[in-house]
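Changelog note: in this version the structure field was regenerated for every chain. One regenerated record is shown below for reference.
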Amino acid sequence: MHLVRVACAVCGSREADTVAAGYDYEYATVPDRFEFQKCRSCGHLFLNPRPSAQDLSVIYPPTYYSFSEAQSGSSLIGYFRGLWEAQKVKSFRALLGPGKKKILDVGCGEGRFLSILKQHGDPAWELMGVDFDAKAVAECRKRGFRAEAQRIEDFKPEEKFDAIIMFQLIEHVEDPREVVRQVRARLNPGGFFIIETPNPAGRDYHWFKKSYWSHYHIPRHWNIFTPEHLRRLLVGEGFEIVEQKPLLAAASWIISLHNLFLDKGYPAWLVRFFTFRNPLLLAVFVPFDLFLSKILGFPTSNQRMTGRAGLPS
């Protein structure tokens, strides 16, 4: 490992206090213990020290869930996930309006969400993906999509886009501000940047924040953004925020409990049972997360934020 010490991605301060520590409970890629720190200046959460970009092939194993649909779980989970994502795409259609639009999916993997966009989006949409995993990009191309095997920081397309989608990725990147800047440069005026990322506001964060919270995803999540910090990042790079909303985060409860049970030495069968691919557990924690958010009014630990690139003055 080539661990590097970093400054706060939001305000640039190097003064921070350790608030959590843990291991790679999900994939056991490395034995190292990592720390999450909170910036003394602005309160942003970030992994410090963290792996360097040259360690990506170590901390992202071939079995990593976002690289392969084979890891997605049962067909029943896939069915309900598809219904939920179809509704998501319908909201994107309303946001973008009718007609030809160029859309880029950053972190496209094998092209699963590009397929959802193709199935439920406007037939006139032109779809493209980018992902740093070459094997996943090759599979994406087999589905008929244009895709490039690059990090978004290195991606230099000739065309510009009307929407760029980045789901559960900005928390992984080396320099979030530079990524937002690069996204802004690749959008047409008035184009949309749609981000989904963890939010340290859910009750699961408060219960598991010392070590086991799933969205620490040690050592692959490098920054955890509150809505305020994410807004600050986007506005600072020329975006107008047009939407911020909480999203369902049922899997976070399951993975957090998995991490706890694994670390405490619970029976192996119980640890294996607590996976986000288990439809029985999802049947419990989806209603539980909805009850906490819709009935009791607690925020969830997942969020979507949409920014619009400024129009020329």
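Spot check on this record: The mean pLDDT is 93. DSSP finds ten helices and eleven strands in the chain.
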